Amino acid sequence: MNKLVKFAFFLLILLSAVFIGLVVLNIENIAVLSPEGMIGQKQSNLLVLSIYLMLIIVIPVFILAWFVVWKYEVSKKHTDYDPEWNHSTIAEIIWWGVPCIIVIILGVMTWKGSHALDPFKPIVSDTKPLRIQVVALQWKWLFIYPEQNIATVNFIQFPEKTPIAFEITSDAPMNSFWIPDLGGQIYAMSGMKSQLHLIADGIGSYRGLSANISGDGFSGMTFVAQSSSLEDFEEWVASAQNSPDPLNFQSYRELAKPSSYNVPAIYQLGEEGLFDWIVMKYVMPMPAHKEKGMNHVFPTY
Amino acid sequence: MFFQHIKVRLAAIEYSDIFGRLTLEAFKHDAIEASVGISIIFGSIILVAVLTYYKLWTWLWTEWLTSVDHKKIGVMYLVVTVLMLFKGVVDALMMRAQQVLSVGDSFGYLTSSHYQQLFTAHGTTMIFFVAMGAVAALMNIIVPLQIGARDVAFPFLNNLSFWLFAVGASLLMVSLMIGEFSGAGWVGYPPLSGLEYNPGVGIDYWIWSLQISGIGSLLTGINFLVTIFKMRCPGMTLMKMPLFVWSVFNSVILIVFAFPILTATLAMLSLDRLLGMHFFTSDFGGSAMMYVNLIWAWGHPEVYILILPAFGVFSEVVATFSEKRLFGYVSMVWALISITILSFLVWLHHFFTMGAGPNVNTFFGFMTMIIAVPTGVKVFNWLFTMYKGKVHLTNPILWFLGFVFIFTIGGMTGVLMGVAPVDFQVHGSLFLIAHFHSMVVGGVLFGLIAGYVYWFPKIFGFKLNEKLGEYAWFCWMFGFLLTALPLYALGLMGATRRMDHYEASTGWAPLFVVAAIGAIIIFCGIGFQVLQLLVSFKERNKNRDLTGDPWNGRTLEWTTSSPPPVYNFAFIPEVKDRDAFWDQKQTGIPLHGEYKEIHMPKNTPLGFYIGVLSFTFSFGLIWYMMWLAAISFVGIVVCILLRLFDQHTDFYISAAEVKKIEEQTLKNKRFV
C-alpha cells in the first residue's frame, strides 16, 4: 500500500477522534445536544439513540473498507484471488436484512417521537401555559402576549418550568422560528397559524433565530429568549405594561416596514385582535391589504 | 386583467419600449462584483484572440459546435462543467471568507444582497451546471460505447440539449455583468421569490437559467432512455447491461418523470411574476406551500439523478481495479430500481417543519430511511467486490474509498434527519449543509471525478498522471472533512444556513476559520487537478493508450480504440456475458469479415442557432424586451421547422475509409 494511502487512513482515524473528542468536551456549548428544555432534551435523546443504532451498520462498513484494502491490495500477493466469485445468498440476506430491521426500529421511533413531540401538541403540565403570538416581519420578530397585553420586538421573557404556547405567523416571506436550546423549529408563513410548544427547565438566556432565508436582513433576525423565575417575569410584565409605546395598527404599520438588526423594544398592546388580523388579511378573497375600502373592521394596510 | 397588471407594473418602473427595463444602472456594480465581471470579459477576449490567431474558428465550428457526435458533445459538456466548477468553487470560498470575517461588530466584505446572490448562484451552479453537466458528459461519452452503439438515438436532439444547457449556464454568467442574480436560494421559495418581495431581474435570471437548461436535461433524459432501450447491441439483454448503463437508465427515468414538474413549477412562478397571477402568492388564494411541495417533488429525484450515475461509475471502477466480477449484480440492479421508485416518495422530508402533522411526517421519514437500505446494500456489494480480488489502488479506487467514508457519514446524518422529530432541531441549519455536501461532494463529485480519471484515456487517448491525482484526492478528502466537520458541529450549536453575520457571543468564529481552511485545501486539490491535466497533456506521448484498453477493462468501451473512431465500432459487437470484454478475453476475441460502409448522422448548426435564440428569448423576457422575446420565439419555431423538413441528415462512411482507420488502430496495437 502506498505511503499516502496509509497516511490518509491514519489521518482519518486521528481526525475522527479529534472531532468526537472536541464534541464530547464541549457538549455544554452545543445547544442541540445539551438543551435546556424538556422538548429539546427528548429530541436530543432521540438523536443520540438513532446514531447509536446506525453505528451498528456504519462501523462494520468502515472496518470492511479498511480490511479489503489491507488484505487484498495487489502488492500483498494474497492467494485467495477468485475473479468469478460474485454471489452469496447469506451475505445478501444479511445486508438487506439487518439494515431493514434497524430502519424498522428507527421508523417506530419516528412514529412515536412525531406524535410525542408534535410541535402543535400542548405540553401536559399543571402550570397554565403562557401564550405568545409570534409574527415574522422584515426583518425582526414581533411577539404579542395577548393575556398580558404587551408586545415585544426581538426579545421574549417567560417563567421557567411553564409551558409556552407559541402561535406563529408571518407578515413577510417565510421564516422559521427556532430556539435551539429549547427545542425544534416551525415555519412562520403568512396567512397561516403554526404552533410550537416549548418549555424551559431552568433560568437562562437563550438565542433564538430565523432558520429560513427571508431577504436582506435575515441574519439579523435573532432574538433573546429569557427564562426567568415567575416573580421576575411578573415584574417584567408589569413594567412592560407601563411602556410609553402602544402597539396599534398605526405603529404596527411603521414597525412592519423593512428594517434590519432591530434592537429589542417593548410595547403596550393597543389592539387586541392584531395577530388574527395579520393572519386573516392574507386569507381574504381579495388582496385586501392593497385595495382600499375593502375592509370595514380593520384599517387597510 | 393581466394587461391591467402589466400596465400598472410598467408604470411603476423605469421602462422603455426598446430596452425594456434595462438601464445603465444594470451595469453598475460594486468593486468585487465588477472585478468578477471584468475577468470574465477579459478571459473571453483572450479566448477569442487565441482562436483567431491560430485560425481555429472553422475547426471549432465544424468539428465541435455543430457536431452531433456523442463523444464530442460529451467533451463540450465537460468543458462547460469545468468552467462552471471554478465559478461555483470561487463562490464557496467567498462565502467561507464572509463567515470568517462577518462576526460581532464587523459585517464582512460583502453586502447581504451580494452574499445571498452568492449562495444562490453557488447552489444553482453546482447542481445544474456542474453535477448535471458532469453526469451528462459521462453519460454522453460512455453509454453508447458501453452498449455497443454508434451514437445516441437522436443525435440532433443531443446537440440541442447541450446548447440549452450551455445557454442556462451563460444566463447565469451574464447576470454577473448585467443586472443581478437571484438571492432567494437555489430552490427559490415564494413569497420571497415572488414579485412582491423581489421585483428585480435576479429571480427572472434564475428562473430562465433553470428553465432553459431544465428543458435541455429533459431532452437528454428522453434521448438516453430511448437509446438504452432501443440501441443495445445484439445479445445485450437488460440484465447483461453494465451497471453504469443501468444507473444512467434509472437516472434518465427520473429525469423524464421529474423534470416536467420543474418546468411546470417554474412556468407558474414566472406567470406569477410576469402576468401577476397568484399560483404561489400569499394572497388571492395562492399557496406558497404548493410551490415548496412541487419544487421538492422535482428536487428530491434530482439528487438521485445525480448520485445514481456516480454509483454506476463506482460499480465499473471497483470491478475493473479489483480484477473481479462485480459482486451481487442482480442485487445491485434491484437496489438501483428501488432507489428510483423510493426517490419519488420522500420529498416532504425537506420541510417536516412546515407542520403537516405527525402522521404525514412519519410516512415521509420512514420512506427516507428505507432509501438508506438499498444504498447501504450497494456499499456492501462494492466492498465485497474487492474482497478476494486484486485491488489496485489507482486514483479511481482512492476516490471510491474517500466516497465510502464521507458518503457513509453523510448517509448516517441523512437518516438522522429522516427521524422527523430530530429534524426539527437541525432543519435549515449548517448541519443540513454539512449533510448534503457530504452526499453531493463525497458522493456525486467523487464518483464523477473517479469516472473522469477512469475514462479519460478512452476520451483523449492518454492517461492522467497518477501521482498528482493522489495529491488532488488527498486535498479534496481532508479539505472536505475539515470543512464539513465544523459545519456539523455549528449546526448543532444553532447556526443556520445562508447567514452572512453572527454575534461574537456565539463563539463560532474559530469553527468557521477551520471550515475556511478546509475550503482552501479543497481549492489546492483543484489546483493539483489542473496541474495533473497540464502535466499529463505535456507527457501525453509517454502516457498514450494505443491498446484501447489501459486498465484491463471488462466492458465494451475498452474494445475500441482510444479515442474511439467517429463510428465507435467498425463491427457492432455481440455480447454473451455481463462483462462482455472480460468474457472475450477469456474465450477469444471474435473475428469479423469484410469492412462495410457505416451510416452516420450529419452535423448541423441548428442546435446552436436554437440555443442562441433561446438565450435572446430568455434575455428579452427577463428585461421585458418583448420584441426581442417575440422575434426569438419565432426564430426558434422556424429553426425547428427547418430541421423537420431537412431530408439530408445522414451520410455514409465508405468501407475503404473504415478499413483505413481500423488498420491504423491495429498497427498501433501491434506497436505496443
Brief characterization of the structure:
The complex is a heterodimer of chains A (301) and B (672). Chain A is α+β, with helices and mostly antiparallel strands and 301 residues long.
Comma- or semicolon-separated keywords:
heterodimer; A: 301 residues; alpha+beta; Immunoglobulin-like; 7-stranded mixed β-sheet; disordered C terminus; B: 672 residues; mainly alpha; Cytochrome C Oxidase, Chain A; two-stranded antiparallel ribbon; 1% strand; globular
Write a structural description.
The complex is a heterodimer of chains A (301) and B (672). Chain A is α+β, with helices and mostly antiparallel strands and 301 residues long. Chain A has helices at 3-25, 38-72, 89-116, 230-241, 249-256, 274-280, and strands at 130-137, 140-145, 150-153, 155-159, 164-170, 175-179, 183-188, 194-198, 204-210, 223-228, 246-247, 265-269. Chain A folds into two domains: 30-74 and 89-117; 130-280, Immunoglobulin-like (Sandwich), CATH 2.60.40. Chain A is 38% helix and 22% strand. Chain A has a seven-stranded mixed sheet. Chain A has a five-stranded mixed sheet with strand order 4-10-9-6-7. In chain A, strand 2 and strand 3 form a beta hairpin. In chain A, helix 2 packs antiparallel against helix 3. The longest helix of chain A is centred in the first third of the chain and has 35 residues, at 38-72. In chain A, 41% of the residues are buried. Chain B has 672 residues and is mainly α. Chain B has a domain at 1-305: Cytochrome c oxidase-like, subunit I domain (Cytochrome C Oxidase, Chain A), CATH 1.20.210.10. Helices cover 67% and strands 1% of the residues of chain B. Chain B has 20 helices and two strands. In chain B, helix 5 runs parallel beside helix 14, helix 9 (288-321) packs across helix 14 (430-460) and helix 10 (329-342) packs antiparallel against helix 11 (358-386). The longest helix of chain B has 35 residues, at 112-146. At the A-B interface, helix 1, helix 2, helix 3, strand 7 and strand 9 of A face helix 5, helix 11, helix 12, helix 13 and helix 15 of B.
